[in-house]
Design a protein that fits this description.
This protein is of the alpha+beta class and about 350 residues long. The protein has two domains: about 160 residues, no CATH class; about 140 residues, no CATH class. It has six helices and ten strands. The radius of gyration is 39 Å and the shape is rod-shaped. The N terminus is likely disordered.
């Protein structure tokens, strides 16, 4: 006579007669229902020392009847594809669920994961002497698996998504594995490029206006006795050009320094501004000084506006949730999986302990 399943695992085992009387909601079979022969089936392996509790490692209580049974579960594997055309985002990943088989007229609880999926651990047959425990009064049909698949698809559509960051002003999108700090740095770098470009346009306008001022001075030179006054004012204009060039160079160097978040806070920049201000406070070339001071104030204000604008633009980052669509779900495996349990019946009470 074959060794009983309970004896093989080192704990008490009794004959199986009247097994269903202690659990009226279940029936026990030696093989799967014939209606499920066309459904892929596999068995989870029994773990080492199943007679102990899986978490505390203490011995399970020994009752009048102890046996190894298999309960049905669902193994579902799918490939998920996420797309976002505007972000040029495309990503594919696999998901797997091993969950208890649902009760009659119920959807599976796809969050009640029994264990992580390992395709190499599954077995083609159950342990000798073990029985299959099924819900009594329920018909198990192959066509039912279509509705179970539909339930899985609904669950994935509701729960699976990918999250990235984006900056709508700069039209930048993060990579899937790019964190917020790294993406903010990318935005800052892009903001620097745009700020430098806009500052270059401002510098060009500045040079055009200073050339006009110089032309005006040359016209003044044509007046009698104006040569000495022109030299004085021209020196003021040249000094102004030199100082503004230093200001521009300071701004450009700071824009390209990722460690400096706001150019106006740079001590070097403040020093250059003080020198420019001191030059204009000297009162040399009064007529031109007023014009240059207005030009200076306008120039600095525009630089400040560029600073502030692109700092705000670079920091304006949002989250974008890329939801799954049905055409992005490819179910590659959907099987009936038998999970082993230790069934202990004591004083009319049935206890089930995981044996996997």
């Amino acid at each position: 006579m074959q060794q009983m399943a309970g004896e093989r695992y080192g704990f008490l085992s009794h004959p199986m007669q009247d097994a269903s009387s202690s659990r009226t909601e279940s029936i026990y079979l030696k093989r799967p229902p014939e209606e499920l022969e066309d459904i892929e089936q596999a068995y989870l392996p029994v773990r080492e020392h199943p007679e102990t509790h899986p978490e505390t490692q203490t011995l399970l209580p020994i009752g009048p009847r102890v046996r190894l049974v298999y309960l049905p579960a669902i193994l579902a594997c799918a490939e998920l594809s996420f797309f976002e055309n505007q972000a040029n985002f495309s990503y594919r990943r696999d998901v797997a669920r091993i969950v208890p088989f649902p009760k009659k007229e119920s959807d599976p609880d796809w969050n009640a994961i029994l264990l992580d999926y390992d395709p190499h651990s599954l077995k083609p047959a159950r342990e000798k002497g073990a029985l299959l425990s099924l819900e009594k009064g329920r018909r198990y049909r192959a066509e039912d698996f279509n509705s179970l698949k539909a339930s899985l698809i609904r669950h994935l559509l509701q729960t699976e998504e990918e999250r990235i960051f984006f900056n709508r002003h700069l039209k930048l999108y993060s990579r899937r594995d790019e964190g917020l700090d790294e993406f903010l740095l990318s935005c800052h770098e892009q903001g620097q490029k745009l700020a430098a470009q806009e500052a270059g346009e401002l510098i060009h306008k500045m040079k055009t206006r200073t050339d006009r001022i110089r032309q005006k001075e040359q016209q003044q030179l044509l007046k009698p006795g104006a040569e000495e006054a022109f030299r004085t004012r021209n020196r003021s204009l040249e000094t102004f050009d030199v100082l503004l060039t230093r200001v521009v160079n300071q701004y450009l160097s700071i824009w390209h320094d990722p460690n400096i978040a706001f150019p106006a806070s740079s001590p070097d920049m403040e020093g250059v501004r003080e020198k420019v201000k001191a030059f204009f406070d000297n009162g040399e070339g009064e007529d031109i000084t007023v014009e240059l001071m207005e030009f200076r104030d306008e120039f600095f204000e525009n630089l400040h506006n560029i600073d502030n604008h692109y700092q705000d633009v670079a920091a304006d980052v949002e989250e974008l949730d890329i939801r799954l669509v049905e055409k992005g779900i490819d179910i590659v495996r959907f099987a009936l999986l038998w999970a082993p349990y230790i069934e202990v019946t004591d004083r009319g009470t049935l206890h089930l302990h995981r044996a996997f």
